[in-house]
Design brief:
Shape: rod-shaped
Structural class: mainly alpha
Largest sheet: none
Distance between the termini: 128 Å
Number of helices: 3
Helix content: over 70%
Low-confidence stretches: none
Number of domains: 2
Mean pLDDT: 82
């Protein structure tokens, strides 16, 4: 005797049962639903996760981002140098003005 899958066994049992027509109709409907469910599971496997993945960045986008970071870094460096020069000039001017103020207070 060869073993058949449970779905085939149930189908054979339903065909043999001819006494109650309502029970036979319900059993056939259940078998059809089981067949449809297994066909649907085989046709469309469920994804591993429920969210959508965004496509990754291309090489051109990464090159553009790298260039933007380099230009921004150079700009920040020039701004820092400009602030240092401005601070040095302001300190020199303040020293000169303070020396002039002391000279004016002494009466020279």
């Amino acid at each position: 005797m060869t073993e058949r899958d449970p779905l085939a066994q149930a189908e054979a049992a339903v065909r043999e049962a001819q006494t109650d027509t309502v029970a036979v109709q319900l059993a056939l409907a259940a078998i059809e639903l089981a067949k449809a469910a297994t066909a649907q599971q085989q046709a469309a496997p469920a994804p591993a996760c429920g969210h959508q993945h965004k496509p990754g960045r291309s090489a051109g986008e990464w090159v553009g981002i790298g260039c933007a970071v380099c230009v921004g870094g150079i700009g920040l460096a020039f701004a820092s140098i400009a602030l240092a020069i401005l601070g040095g000039c302001a300190a020199i001017v303040l020293l000169i003005v303070r020396d002039l103020w002391r000279d004016m207070q002494r009466g020279r």
